[in-house]
TrEMBL record:
Keywords: ATP-binding, Biotin, Ligase, Nucleotide-binding. One of its GO terms (molecular function) is metal ion binding. Acetyl-CoA carboxylase is a heterohexamer of biotin carboxyl carrier protein, biotin carboxylase and the two subunits of carboxyl transferase in a 2:2 complex. It holds the Pfam family CPSase_L_D2. InterPro entries: ATP-grasp, BC-like_N, Biotin_carboxylase_complex, Biotin_carboxylation_dom, Biotin_COase_C, CPAse_ATP-bd, PreATP-grasp_dom_sf, Rudment_hybrid_motif. Residues 3-451 form the Biotin carboxylation domain. Pathway: Lipid metabolism; malonyl-CoA biosynthesis; malonyl-CoA from acetyl-CoA: step 1/1. This protein is a component of the acetyl coenzyme A carboxylase complex; first, biotin carboxylase catalyzes the carboxylation of the carrier protein and then the transcarboxylase transfers the carboxyl group to form malonyl-CoA. Residues 122-321 form the ATP-grasp domain. It comes from the Bacteria. Transmembrane segments: none annotated. It catalyses: N(6)-biotinyl-L-lysyl-[protein] + hydrogencarbonate + ATP = N(6)-carboxybiotinyl-L-lysyl-[protein] + ADP + phosphate + H(+). This is Biotin carboxylase.
Length: 463
């Protein structure tokens, strides 16, 4: 039995619903927290108990650490799972949870802190024998000494990256040296406001790149395993849209090096729990470089779950409770292929502008072993402007990549959603694209795809 009988989920939407399912399968009662805007939300309905934590704005509710801790105390929850986003990678919040005598479902705060600082993470990765992209020391607000020399050493094009950023936030591409200083200053200002840390650093930009990541799990004692890889190259503005596992068109030698590097980083940190080591793969050089490590469950974790049969959220909870025994690497086997797409209320032809509104009608395709839908909404719910406009994730599994893509494509045809402008036509178009079919997709694919289809509607109101 776990060390706690009740767990509070410090999140909302589909990830909160997802965590509730694993908790109930483990016999653990759940507590949902919600803002005023989410009073009637699905995750509130699914949980055994619920507590309102503030107004609609996230900073006044889901990001209000003390209100969440109070909710745990008043309901008798023994553990807190942060999901992803919000407070999931906030080391101070993790420490507060532990200091309150509660179980933190996540890695040690020092791991969150180390990997959250992108420059420190690069140094740790390098010490662990993980290849890193050429980069610079950090530059704090008002400090430009040596900037031009550092940029010349890194080479153009380059990325200006917020040291405390993540998930694609706080990154700016610079290919003209004359624009460097302005971009650095703008990124420093944004980083200070968004993360409370204005420092940035420079990093080489790989022109023909793929985004490949390795799912890892550490047992906190220096042992750890990988659960294979995922490709997340279909993205816009550094935000992922379609993910798949395993990554296509990767040689055995490169894949083995990815796994070696990722597990080495886990061992080096004595990491505990689920994490994702992300790499930029230079297709010209056939070389992978460390990008960052996410110290939480990922949005795209269902791809890994479908090909390995592992419930990663259950593993997280059991590891935090001290009931998970280390699993040998050879017991983790990939079967088939999985592809996930993120359904958003947005208008791709308007630069992916969010399109909140009422879900007037909703019919999901039939779910079985080959198709999974993770969502936090029902017909009659409203996608609000307060949070990320993701409606759902559709994940298809097949014996091979072609079958998984075909099943996902069919699911999108069967999907009916009324009242919202969504990216469903965009997703259909991407899955139909010959480059997607052959796996010849880089991080520049979406821009190329949009340029090719300027005259074609790629958002849709209704089904």
């Amino acid at each position: 039995m776990p060390a706690f009988k009740k767990l509070l989920i410090a999140n909302r939407g589909e990830i909160a619903c997802r965590i509730i399912l694993s908790c109930h399968a483990l016999g653990i009662r759940t507590v949902a927290v919600y803002s005023e805007a989410d009073r009637e939300a699905l995750h509130v309905e699914m949980a055994d108990e619920s507590v309102e934590v503030g107004p609609a704005a996230a900073r006044e509710s889901y990001l209000k650490a003390e209100a969440i801790l109070d909710a745990a105390r008043c309901t008798g929850a023994g553990a807190i799972h942060p999901g992803y986003g919000f407070l999931s990678e906030n080391a101070d919040f993790a420490r507060s949870v532990i200091a309150a005598g509660l179980v933190w479902v996540g890695p040690a705060p020092i791991s969150i802190e180390d990997m959250g600082d992108k420059e420190r993470a690069r140094d740790i990765a390098k010490a662990a024998g993980v290849p890193i992209l050429p980069g610079s020391p950090r530059f704090t607000l008002g400090d430009m000494a040596g900037l031009a020399e550092a940029a010349e050493e890194v080479g153009f094009p380059l990325l200006v990256k917020a040291a405390a950023g993540g998930g694609g936030i706080g990154m700016r591409l610079v290919d003209d040296p004359a624009q460097l200083r302005n971009v650095v200053e703008a990124t420093q200002s944004m980083a200070g406001k968004s993360f409370g840390d204005s420092s940035v650093y420079l990093e080489r930009y790989v022109t023909n790149a793929r985004h490949i990541e390795v799912q890892v799990f550490g047992f906190g004692d220096g042992q750890g395993v990988h659960l294979y890889d995922r490709d997340c190259s279909v993205q816009r503005r550094f935000q992922k849209i379609i993910e798949e596992a395993p990554a296509p068109n990767v040689s055995d030698a490169v894949r083995a090096e990815l796994f070696r590097a990722a597990v080495s980083l886990v061992h080096h940190q004595r990491y505990s729990g689920a994490g994702t080591v992300e790499f930029i793969y230079d297709t010209d050089r056939e070389q992978a470089y460390f990008l960052e490590m996410n110290t939480r469950i990922q949005v795209e974790h269902p791809c890994t779950e479908l090909v390995t049969g592992v419930d990663l959220v259950a593993w997280q909870i059991q590891q935090a409770a001290g009931t998970l025994k280390p699993v040998p690497q050879e017991r983790i086997v990939v079967r088939g292929h999985a592809v996930e797409c993120r359904l958003y209320a947005e208008r791709p032809e308007k630069n992916f502008l969010p399109s909140p509104g009422l879900i007037a009608g909703l019919h999901w395709p039939n779910q079985d072993d080959a198709l999974r839908v993770d969502t936090g909404v029902r017909a009659g719910d409203r996608i609000t402007p307060f949070y990320d406009p993701m409606v759902a994730k559709l994940i298809a599994h097949g014996a091979d990549r072609a079958q998984a893509i075909a099943r996902l494509r069919q699911a999108l045809d069967e999907l009916v959603i009324e009242g919202l402008s969504t990216n469903v036509n965009f997703l259909r178009g991407v899955l139909d694209d010959s480059r997607m079919g052959t796996g010849a997709v880089t991080t520049g694919f979406v821009a190329e795809f949009l340029a090719d289809r300027k005259a074609v509607p790629i958002s849709r109101v209704g089904s």
